[in-house]
Amino acid sequence: MTQEQILEAIKEMTVLQLNDLVKAIEEEFGVTAAAPVAAAAAGGAAEEEQTEFDVILASAGDQKIKVIKAVREATGLGLKEAKALVDEAPKAIKEGVTKEEAEELKGKLEEVGASVEVK
Known about the structure:
Elements: H1 3-11, H2 15-29, H3 35-46, E1 53-59, H4 64-75, H5 79-87, E2 91-97, H6 99-111, E3 115-118
Antiparallel strand pairs: 1-2, 1-3
């Protein structure tokens, strides 16, 4: 039987016959006709654009003093607090910031030798 013959036979079926055919195919092959719809809905939810980002200092690198200064400037922390934050790497520098602010801070920290992640 060719594909065209199968399609012609399906075209001649009533809605009830088609429903029975779908159920029989699902049972025979262990599939469900609703799976593509559910996968598309799940994929759509996963594609929502992230609006808040966390900037995480992975490591201070070789120029720790410059990284501490950059962290102080970005966060407004005192010298002691900024040094403690850099010493505790990996550690979040800023959380819940915009993408632009996260990328700007990442650029500043990487410029002075730090390893930074944006999540």
